[in-house]
C-alpha cells in the first residue's frame, strides 16, 4: 500500500500556525476577509466555495461572495473587481477560473490590486513566481503541492519532477516553485509524445491536466510520489482526480506515496488561501490602518 | 559532419526584414536609438558592446553608451536608468548583467520603463514570457534561440528539449518560449543529478550555464540539435561556448546540428536586440510623437 498523503493533517498544521495570528489580528480589531468571485455555477467552483466558506468560518475569517451569471459582460466583472480593490475591509480575492470564453481573463486578472492577489493571478505575482523574487503570492494550488511535500518530509532538491499540464493556474507555477527548490523539472502536456516515458522516470509526478482519471498505471513506477491536482467529476458525477487512483496506487508500492481525491490537495489549497488572506491582513495592520 | 547553425545567415535575414522598416522610420524623422548600460569592463560585455555598436551603425540605428565603474553605487546606476526613461529619443535599453554584487539587480531591472525593456529584464516582460501573453519583450538571447531554430527549419512542437541552466537571462525564459511552441521541456541545472542522462534523450539541447566547454561528448547523441548560448573566455583567453565543440560535433553526426561559438547565437542576439529597438521606435510613431 502506497502512503496516502491526505490533506487533513497538512491543513491542521497550517491552521494551528494561523490561530494565534488571527487572534492577534482580532485583538487589533481586524477580521481577515476573503472575497470570492464566481461567474456561473460550475460544480467544481461551487464545491470549492462551500469548502472555503466552511473553513474560513472555522478559522475566524470572513468570506464575501460576489456571484455573476455565466453570461455577465466584462464590465460587470470588472466592476466587481473594482469594488474588491476599493474596500479596505477585504484583504484577498479568489476568482474562479477559467472564466467564460467571452471574458478577457488576463485583463481581469491584472485589474485586481496586486496586494490582494492572494491566488497569484496577476502579472506581478506571475513575475514573482517566475523570477523567484518572493513578490506577490504564488497560486494557492501550486503552493499546496509544496506544503504537502514538506509536511510529509518528501525531499525535492535534486529530484526529477514531471509536471503534466502547463496551465498558469498550476502547471507552470508549480514547475517554477519546484525548480526554485532545486528539482530537475520537466513540463509535459497534451502535445508531449509518450508522456508516460517521461513520468515513469520521475521521482515526483504532478498531475494537473483536469482530465478525470486520465493517468493510469502505465504512467507510474514503484517508489514514486504522485500529486494529483485534479478536481474533476466523472460521468457518474463522482468527484475524482486526474489519476486513476485504484489502478495506480498498487503500482507505487510501499515506498510510493499519492494524494487522494477527494481528501488530498484540495483542502490544502483552501488552507493556503486562508493563510495568504491572513498575511495580507497583517500587512494592512503594519501599514498602520 | 553536423550541420553548422551559423548566425550570419539568420542575422542577414533579420536585417533584410528590418531595412524597409528603418527606412520608413527615417522618412518620418525617427532614428531608432539603443541605450547600452554597462558597469565595469568585463571582456564579454565589451565584446558584445563592440559588436552591437557595429551592427547598429550598419543598420542605421543609433547607440548611446552609458558606462559606470564596477563599484559605482546603486544610486548612480538608477540615475542612468532614469535618464534613459526620460529621454524620448531613446527607444530601448540593453543593460549588461550580472550586475556587481552590491547592486540590487531586481530593483534596477524594474526601474526601467517597461516600454523600453527590449531585453526582457523587468517584471512586466518576465510575466509576459511566463504567461505567454505577448506583452513586453522576451530576453533577446532567448528569442535568438527560437529565431535560429526557425530559420534553419528545425521543428520544436512535440520535441524533447533539455535546457541546461535556469537563469532569468536565458534558461527560464527560453524554456517558457519553447513550451509555448509545444515542446516538452526539461530544466536542468547545477543541482541536477546526472544531467547527461537527460540531455542524451533530448531532440534539442540548449546549453546556457556560462561555463567554458563544460559539456563534452557524454552529454550528446547522434541527430541532436545543440544550441550553445555560452559566450565564455577560456584560460587561454580564447572565446568559447558552454559546449566542447571539437569533441561534441562528431558525436552529433550528419543528422545533427550545432551552433558554433563564435559565429553562432551571439550575433543573432544582437540582431534580435536591434529588431526590438525598431519595434519600439515604430510604436512611438504610432503613438503620434
Automatic annotation (TrEMBL), chains A, B:
TM spans, by residue?
none
User: Quick one: which residues bind NADP(+)?
Assistant: 165-167, 231
**Pathway it acts in?**
One-carbon metabolism; tetrahydrofolate interconversion
Q: Give the catalysed reaction(s), semicolon-separated.
A: (6R)-5,10-methylene-5,6,7,8-tetrahydrofolate + NADP(+) = (6R)-5,10-methenyltetrahydrofolate + NADPH; (6R)-5,10-methenyltetrahydrofolate + H2O = (6R)-10-formyltetrahydrofolate + H(+)
Q: What does this protein do?
A: Catalyzes the oxidation of 5,10-methylenetetrahydrofolate to 5,10-methenyltetrahydrofolate and then the hydrolysis of 5,10-methenyltetrahydrofolate to 10-formyltetrahydrofolate.
Kindly list any coiled-coil regions of this protein.
Answer: none
Q: How does it assemble?
A: Homodimer.
Write one Pfam family the protein is assigned to. Answer: THF_DHG_CYH_C
Q: What's the EC number here? A: 1.5.1.5, 3.5.4.9
Protein name per UniProt: Bifunctional protein FolD
What lineage does the source organism belong to?
Bacteria, Bacillati, Actinomycetota, Coriobacteriia, Eggerthellales
Q: Which gene encodes it?
A: folD
Amino acid at each position: 500500500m502506497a502512503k496516502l498523503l491526505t490533506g487533513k493533517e497538512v491543513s491542521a498544521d497550517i491552521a494551528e500556525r494561523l490561530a494565534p495570528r488571527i487572534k492577534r489580528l482580532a485583538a487589533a480589531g481586524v477580521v481577515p476577509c476573503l472575497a470570492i468571485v464566481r461567474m456561473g455555477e460550475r460544480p467544481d467552483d461551487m464545491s470549492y466555495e462551500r469548502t472555503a466558506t466552511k473553513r474560513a468560518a472555522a478559522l475566524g475569517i470572513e468570506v464575501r461572495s460576489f456571484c455573476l451569471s455565466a453570461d455577465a459582460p466584462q464590465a460587470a466583472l470588472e466592476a466587481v473587481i473594482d469594488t474588491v480593490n476599493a474596500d479596505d475591509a477585504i484583504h484577498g480575492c479568489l476568482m474562479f477560473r477559467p472564466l467564460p470564453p467571452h471574458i478577457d481573463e488576463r485583463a481581469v486578472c491584472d485589474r485586481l490590486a496586486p496586494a490582494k492577489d492572494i491566488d497569484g493571478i496577476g502579472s506581478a505575482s506571475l513575475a514573482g513566481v517566475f523570477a523567484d523574487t518572493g513578490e506577490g503570492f504564488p497560486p494557492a494550488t501550486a503552493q499546496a503541492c509544496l506544503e504537502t511535500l514538506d509536511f510529509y518530509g518528501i525531499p525535492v532538491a535534486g529530484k526529477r519532477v514531471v509536471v503534466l499540464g502547463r496551465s498558469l493556474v498550476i502547471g507552470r507555477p508549480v514547475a517554477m516553485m519546484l525548480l526554485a527548490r532545486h528539482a530537475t523539472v520537466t513540463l509535459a502536456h497534451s502535445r508531449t509524445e509518450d508522456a508516460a516515458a517521461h513520468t515513469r522516470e520521475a521521482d515526483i509526478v504532478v498531475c494537473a491536466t483536469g482530465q478525470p482519471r486520465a493517468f493510469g498505471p502505465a504512467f507510474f513506477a514503484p517508489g514514486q510520489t504522485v500529486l494529483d491536482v485534479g478536481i474533476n467529476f466523472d460521468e457518474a458525477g463522482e468527484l475524482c482526480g486526474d489519476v486513476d487512483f485504484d489502478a495506480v496506487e498498487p503500482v507505487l508500492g510501499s515506498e510510493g506515496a499519492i494524494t487522494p481525491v477527494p481528501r488530498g490537495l484540495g483542502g490544502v489549497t483552501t488552507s493556503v488561501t486562508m493563510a495568504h488572506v491572513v498575511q495580507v491582513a497583517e500587512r494592512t495592520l503594519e501599514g498602520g490602518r
